[in-house]
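Notes to self, Cellulose synthase-like protein E1:
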Amino acid sequence: MAENENGPLFETRPVKGRFFFKLFVASVAVGIGFICAYRLWFLRVASGKLHRWAWIGLFLCELWFSFYWFLTVICRWNPVYRFPYKNRLSQRYKKETLPGVDIFVCTADPSAEPPLMVMNTVLSVMAYDYPPEKLNIYLSDDGASDFTFYAMLEASSFSKQWLPFCRKFKVEPRSPEAYFKTAIEPDNHDPVKLKHWLSIKKLYEETKMRIETSRKMNKIPEDIRKQHKGFREWDFVTSRNDHQTILQILIDGRDPNAVDVEGNVLPTLVYLAREKRPQYHHHFKAGAMNALIRVSARISNGPIVLNVDCDMYSNDSDSINDSLCVFMDHENGHEIAFVQYPQAFHNLTKNDLYGNSCRVFRKLEFPGFDANGGPCYIGTGCFHRREALCGKKYDETCKVDWKRLNHRRVEESASVLEATCKVLASCSFEQNSPWGKEMGLKYGCPVEDIITGLSIQCRGWKSIFLDPERESFLGIAPTTLSAMLVQHKRWAEGHFQIFLSRYCTLLYGHNRIPLQLQLCYCIGNLWAANCLPTLYYVLVPCLCLLRDIPLFPKISSPWVLPFAYVSIAHRAYSLGEFLWCGCTFQAWCNEQRMWLFKRTTSYFFAAFDTVLKLLGYSKSAFVITPKVADRDVSSRYEQELMEFDDSSPMFDVLASLAMLNMFGILGVIKKLASGADHSELPDRLGLQILLCLLLVALNWPVYKAMFYRKDKGRMPASVTYKSIIYALLVSTLTL
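result:
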C-alpha cells in the first residue's frame, strides 16, 4: 500500500537481449572495414577511366550507407520502454484534482477528409474515460466547410446518447463507425442491453445517413440551416481561403442544460475556422494549431493539450490517464513537455502492402529516441504541457502541485466568448508577435511538428514515448502507391529542409540536447540524401554489367565474403526484427520493396524540390493525403494489388529503373547463350548479376502492372512506353 502511495507513476525498463544486437553490430562493422579495405586496395587495379570512376562512386555510396547505418545503430543501442501505473494515479489523485485537458482535432479539406470521419474522431475523444467537465474539444476546420460544421452539430446531438452508452457498456473503441463495424450484436439473454444497443446503432445510422446525404446533394437542407445561428456565417464566406473567423461553442460544458440523457455533464465542444485572407500566409497546420492554442487558452486553458489528426480516432479510452501518469509523476513529471504515442493504422492489409505499419520503428527506433533524450513530436497522438508548447523554458519552477492547482473558471457567457475569441484567430493577430517563432508551433517547414518538438527539447524539456499494449490512436494509411509516395516525399522534403536550415540538429541542438539525440534526428533529416547513393547503386552496376565492367570481387575470391556477410547478415537481422514485431515474411518483403521505391522516387523528388526552394524557384506547400478511395481502389488494396493508375513522374522513374535492370539481366542471358567465350562471366560478374536479379525481383509488381494486369490499377500505357524508350536509350548509349 505504501509503495502505491509513494511509488512512481510510471516505470522505465530497458529492452532485453541487446547483447546479440551489439555482437551483430560489431561483426557487421568488421565486415564494412574489410569492404573499405577491398575498395581502396583494388582501386589501382581498375582499368580505364570509366571503370575507375564507377569504382570510386560505388565506394562513396558504400561509405554513405555505412554512415547512415551507424546513425541507426546509435538510435537502437539501448532502447527503453515506459509503463504507466494508472491504479496509483487513481489512488493518489481524486477526480476534482485532475487537470483539465484540451483536445485539438485538425481538418483541412472536406473532400479528402470526409465530415463523417471527422465526426467519428471527435466523438471518440469526447468519450474518454475522464471527468467530462474537464474535457474540452476544439475542432479546427481549415477548409471552412459548412458540411464539417453540420457534422459537428450532429456530433453534439448524438453525444448525448453515445457517451452514456460507452460508459455503461465499456465500449472500445469509442468511434461509432469503428465500433459498429467490428462489434458483435448482443444475444437475447440480455434483452435490455440488446434493445439499447440496437437503438444506438439505429440512431448512428440515421445520423450517418443525414451527413452523407447532405454531402452527396452538396447542400445542407434549409430546415437544418435554420436550426442553428452558426450557418449564417457562411453567407459571408467568399471561399475556403478568403473568409472571416467562424467560431461557435456548440456545447458549453458550464451550461447546466448541457447534459446527456442520464443527466451527466457533457464535454465542451468548439468549432473554429480561423480567418483566412489571400494577402496573409496561413502557415498550414501549424497556423491552425497556434490559433487553437490561443482560443482554448481563453475558453478553458487546460494545462494539458492533446492534438490528433482528424483521421486518428481514439482507440483506447484510458489514454489520458496513461499520459497523466507521466506528467503527474512527482519525481520526473515536471521535466516532461510532451508524451508521444505511435502512429498506427486500422486499414492495413495482412502483409502491409505499402509498408505503412512502421512497427519496427515503433518498437525499436522510437524507444531508442526515448533512451537518448526523448522522442520527436510527430504532429498527432501527442499530449503536451501547455506552458512548454507556448514557449516556456524549463527550470525548477515548472514543478506543479496538481492537488493545489487552481482551475480558472471563465465567467463570460458562450456568446461573449465567441465574440472576444474571434480576434485571437484573425489573420493580423500574429503580425509582429512571437507566434510561430518563439511561441506555439514553428512556421516555415512542411514538417512543423519536428522543429517544434526539437525547439521544446532545446529549451531544456524532455519527452517520453508511450506505446501501450492496446493501440491508443488508429488512423487511415494510404491505399494507393502514389498517395504513399507523395506523403513520404512531403516528409522527406521537410526533414531535408530542416537539415539544411538553422534548425539542423547538429547546429541548433549543439550543447542543448545530447549528441546521441542530435544524431537520432539525423536519421529522418537525411532521408532525402539517401536518394543519390541508392540511385547510383541501382543504375551503375546494371550499366556496367552491360559493358562487362566488374565492380565487385569474383565469386571465387575470398574478398567476396565481407560483401556476402554484410548483405546477408543485415537483411537477416532485419527479417528477425520484423518477425519479432509480429509481422509476416511477406510484409518484410513488401517493406524492402517500399524501401527501394521511396529512395528512388519520393526522396529523389524531395531532394530536388528542396534544392529548388533554396535557390528560390519553389515554395513550400502542404499536400493533404486523401483519406478516402473509391470502391475499386479499395477492393484492389484489400487483395494486395498495387495501384499504378496515375501518370506520375514518380512512376516514370520506377518503371524506367525496372526496365533497365531487366535489360541488364537479358544482356547477361544473351552473352551466356552465345557461347563459351563468356563462361567466366558468372564468376567475374556474379555479385552484379545477383544485385540485378534482386532488383528485378523487387520490381516484380511493376512488371506485372506494365505487361500483365488488365484492371484499372495497371500502369498507364504512356508510362510503360516512356520507360521502355528511356531504358533502351540509356542501354544503347552505354553499349
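- The mean pLDDT is 91.
- The chain is about 50% helix and 10% strand.
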